[in-house]
Structures are given as structure tokens and as C-alpha cells.
Specification:
two-stranded antiparallel sheet, globular, mainly alpha, 24 helices, 4 strands
């Protein structure tokens, strides 16, 4: 009995998952702030330190750590106004200080420092002697902005703000302003927007997590942020892609299509989300909403890209041309095999910028096979898989078999892995391994002649990273076929918090759908077993 009269309002979010009681790691961490939540506490009633605000604070801490890892490369050198100064990258500083970011070299490489609009301006690719290089077909190698339109425009806006800073510094002649290089201010402005995008990703993940809202803390506190959040501009796409999933979960397919289309205009990977929606639309007989989302996404992408396509078609197509002619990247599984076996690769002896046709075909076949396997899993699982599970599988398969896995691409997986497989210790183990790949990568690029690391030290960590992701994939597939083990489903009481129109939707395959593409266990049998699994 309570020694005091009970409050008039006793509402409590008792269904919310409490990590300090349900998770060993959460229980250990809770000791830092006073221990586990009380058994008789009213959950969800605090007005200040709400879960989302706490996760924003955690996210700001890790974003600050991410900026601090880049700080050694942001030291200004030179004299004069900001546009006459540069960042200190002497003696391969970016490698041994682990502070490399594409943002700084791109500022001059893509002519942003000259105030030119991406896709309109071009430059010549030069060799080590400063002479224009020739392509495999004998033509001069001409370069344009290599990013999708939304990312390119984001860089242009950041550059415009950095130029405004320079103008103010010149007008005021204040030493505190003139002491910072324009390229450093460009990085800081771009990083500020990327930080906001990642906080939006944390918010959208928390909303998608439902009763497991604290799972999004892993997005805010991912070790991958420390090295990769400001390496490139991928946080733009993660915010839009995760926002698209949230719009779908809230049964707003048109808005979902707009956000996914914008995400594709920033980075192509959000287009992969459409496959799970269409596949589950077939299984539930609710294909119309999935088709609408796909169509709106395509229209949005076209509308964003159309002005650049019409005005600067050669510059717009550079992104696609670059990706077709790229060979196996140093982080790809193909390069790992080459590193340990001496295998020359699928397209040995190619000329400069000659497309690796065989490698491209193998990647396409491998990814197509993975997609076919994921579709089969989605249709034959005893209970319809969750949207986040299939989205994670598609993106993970794309990264594993692709010829390019740039370090910042791992950010794509963070919110999806948290939503698909909310096992905190497993996820933290994978994220830690993925984050640490950066260290041998930088020291390998620094060179053995400079007391760096041999290539195999780097490729070994890449292999460990790949094996960790494969392990997560296997666990997700296992839980798809054994839904009672899925923590999100909560012993069958919850179906799919991110499912939108698929949530609690029964199977409704077309009448003539082949039996081998239907669930091996009938839905009614699963429902009976699920009911028995729910504790009294």
C-alpha cells in the first residue's frame, strides 16, 4: 500500500520496452544514472528528459566526436582573407591523423572554390606531371560533378554560404573571421546540415520503433558516426530514406514516395526500399499503395533532376558514367579476394576509364540473385516479414556484393539494422568493427614506406566487417522464419510498427499464385501458435 494518496492521473506507457530491465547492456549502463527504472514508476510521464530528447543529447555528443576526428584536417594555414587560406593537409596529414573527409578536397577539385555551379562546369583529369590524361579510347579525360543532383546542390548551397562568410570577413576585416579558411567554413556549414540530417534520422527511427523507442539510441550513439558522419554527404539520404519509411508506416504513401524520391536524388540507395514494399504488396493484396509510392518516388526524382538534365545533360550523366567505369573498390569483397589470393580481377589490363564490363555484369547477377532470394523469403515465411527486415536485407545484400563499399555507406545500414534486429550487443559489436575499419584503411593509404600498414591488415578488417554483416543477415532471416524470436513482435502481440497498410494485413495472394511461392506454414496455423505463445 502507498503511504500517500495515489495521484488522480495514473496513466503509464507500461507497454514500452525498458532496456534497464529487458537488456543486460541497458541494465549495466543504467547504473551510471541511478539504476533500473522502478517497478511502480509511471512510464512516459516526464516532461523534460523524454526518450527522444535524451537520444538527441547522445546524438549531439557522438556528432561532436565525429567533428573532432576531422578537426586535425581543419587547421587553417596561409595568410590573407579566407579565400586565400587553405586547410593544412601537408605531408599526408589526413591519413596519419585519421581525419580524411571528401568534403575538403572536393571544394577545389569540383571548382566549388571558384563559385561555379556543379554540372555546368568541367575540368581536365591530370596525370602526375600535370598534363591532361587520355582515356582508353584516346579522348581527353573530362570531369564533372560526380554526385546526384540533390547532393550536388547541397554542396553548392554550402559553398554559397561559405562565400558569404568570406565577403563578410573581407568587409569587416575582423581577425577572428579572416583567420578561418573558406574551405574550412565550407566543411563546417556542410557538417552542420549533415548533423541535423542525422538527428532527423534518429527521430524517424524512434518513431518507427514503436514501443521499443530506446532502440533508436543505437542510431544516436553508433560508433560508425565517429569516423563516417562527416566523411561524405550520405546523411542527407539516410534522413530522407528513413523519413520515407516513417511516412509509409503512418499510412501516407504519397509523402513516402516524395521523401524516397528525394532520397534517390541525393543517393541511389533509397530506391532499394521500393522492392520490399512491392513484394509485400503482392503478399497482402495491397499492391496499389506500394505502386503509388513507387510512382510518386519516380516522379519526384524526375522533377528534381529534370532542370539539370535539360540544361547540363553531360554534367548530369557524370554520376552514372563514373559508376559504370569504376573498377573494384578497395573496400569491396572483390578486392579482399584479390588481396589474399593474388587474383588479378575480372577485368585485368583495362585502359584508363575503360568500363569493367565483366565486373559490372557479375555484380548485377549477384545482386539480382540476392533480390530473388529475398523475394522468395518474403513470400514463403510463415508470417509476413516486417518492412524494416526486408529493407535491411536488400541494402545489406547490395553493399556485400557491390564493387564499391565506400566507408560512409555503412551509415545506410545503421537505422535499418536497429529496426530489423534490435539486439543491442550484437549491433554494437558490428558497429564497432565497422568503425575500426577506418584505422587500418587510413594507415594503409599512408603507405608502408611511411611506416603505415600492409594492405592485408586493412583487407582483413574489411573481411571481418563483411562477416559481421553476413551474421546479421542470417539472424534476420532466422527471425523471419521464426517470428516468435523477433523482439519487435513481442510474443505475437505486435505485427509490424513500420508496416503501414501491411500492419495486421492477412495474406491475400492472387488466386493462381503457385504453391511453392506461398508460406510453407498456413497463416491460421501460425496465428494459433502465436496465440499460445502470448503469456496469460
Amino acid at each position: 500500500m502507498s503511504p500517500q494518496p495515489l495521484a488522480a492521473d495514473l496513466r503509464s506507457a507500461d507497454d514500452r520496452d525498458l532496456p534497464s530491465r529487458s537488456d543486460v547492456l541497458g541494465a549495466a549502463l543504467s547504473e551510471v544514472v541511478g539504476g533500473r527504472v522502478g517497478r511502480h514508476a509511471l512510464i512516459g510521464r516526464t516532461r523534460v528528459l523524454t526518450p527522444l530528447r535524451v537520444m538527441f543529447v547522445i546524438g549531439l555528443v557522438f556528432l561532436a566526436l565525429g567533428w573532432s576526428t576531422k578537426a586535425p584536417c581543419l587547421q587553417t594555414v596561409g595568410s590573407g582573407p579566407p579565400d586565400s587560406r587553405v586547410a593544412n593537409w601537408d605531408n599526408q596529414r589526413a591519413y596519419y591523423e585519421l581525419c580524411y573527409s571528401d568534403t575538403v578536397p572536393l571544394y577545389s577539385a569540383e571548382l566549388l572554390n571558384q563559385g561555379k555551379f556543379p554540372y555546368k562546369s568541367s575540368w581536365l583529369e591530370l596525370d602526375s606531371e600535370g598534363k591532361p590524361r587520355k582515356q582508353y579510347d584516346g579522348s581527353t579525360a573530362v570531369r564533372y560533378m560526380e554526385y546526384p543532383v540533390l547532393t550536388g546542390v547541397y554542396q553548392y548551397v554550402s559553398m554559397s554560404l561559405a562565400k558569404t562568410y568570406t565577403a563578410v570577413a573581407k568587409a569587416t576585416k575582423l581577425p577572428v573571421l579572416n583567420g578561418v579558411a573558406e574551405v574550412v567554413m565550407f566543411f563546417n556549414i556542410a557538417a552542420f546540415g549533415l548533423a541535423l540530417c542525422w538527428l532527423a534520422t534518429v527521430w524517424a527511427t524512434a518513431m518507427l520503433a514503436g514501443r521499443r523507442v530506446w532502440d533508436a539510441a543505437l542510431v544516436a550513439a553508433s560508433p560508425i558516426l565517429i569516423f563516417q558522419i562527416f566523411t561524405n554527404f550520405d546523411a542527407l539520404a539516410t534522413a530522407l530514406a528513413t523519413g520515407g519509411l516513417l511516412a509509409w508506416a503512418r499510412r501516407r504513401p504519397t509523402l513516402a514516395g516524395v521523401l524516397i524520391g528525394m532520397g534517390v536524388a541525393a543517393k541511389l540507395y533509397p530506391a532499394l526500399f521500393l522492392l520490399p514494399l512491392l513484394v509485400l504488396g503482392v503478399r497482402t493484396g495491397r499492391l496499389a499503395d506500394a505502386v503509388r509510392t513507387s510512382a510518386i518516388a519516380a516522379i519526384t526524382w524526375i522533377l528534381i533532376n529534370a532542370p539539370v538534365i535539360l540544361l547540363y545533360p553531360r554534367g548530369w550523366s557524370e554520376f552514372f558514367r563514373l559508376n559504370t567505369r569504376r573498377s573494384q573498390d578497395m573496400d569491396s569483397i572483390f578486392n579482399v579476394v584479390r588481396s589474399f589470393t593474388g587474383w588479378p580481377g575480372l577485368d585485368a589490363g583495362l585502359g584508363f576509364w575503360e568500363p569493367p564490363l565483366l565486373l559490372n555484369a557479375v555484380v548485377a547477377v549477384l545482386f539480382g540473385s540476392c533480390c530473388a532470394a529475398i523475394i522468395y523469403i518474403a513470400w514463403t515465411a510463415p508470417q509476413r516479414p516486417r518492412v524494416a527486415q526486408l529493407a535491411f536485407l536488400v541494402v545489406a545484400a547490395f553493399l556485400l556484393v557491390n564493387k564499391v563499399w565506400s566507408p560512409q555507406f555503412s551509415l545506410w545500414l545503421v537505422p535499418l539494422a536497429v529496426l530489423a534486429l534490435p539486439h543491442r550487443r550484437l549491433l554494437l559489436a558490428w558497429m564497432a568493427v565497422d568503425a575500426l575499419v577506418w584505422v587500418p584503411r587510413m594507415f594503409y593509404l599512408y603507405g608502408e614506406q611511411n611506416k603505415g600498414l600492409p594492405e592485408q591488415w586493412f583487407t582483413a578488417t574489411v573481411l571481418l566487417r563483411d562477416l559481421a554483416v553476413v551474421g546479421l543477415v542470417i539472424l534476420v532471416v532466422r527471425q523471419i522464419y521464426r517470428p516468435t524470436e523477433d523482439l519487435v513482435r513481442w510474443h505475437g502481440r505486435i505485427d509490424d510498427p513500420s508496416g503501414g497498410v501491411f500492419d495486421h494485413a492477412p495474406d491475400a495472394f492472387p488466386a493462381r499464385w503457385p504453391a511453392w511461392l506461398r508460406p510453407a506454414v498456413r497463416t491460421e496455423d501460425w496465428d494459433a501458435g502465436r496465440d499460445r505463445a502470448v503469456p496469460a
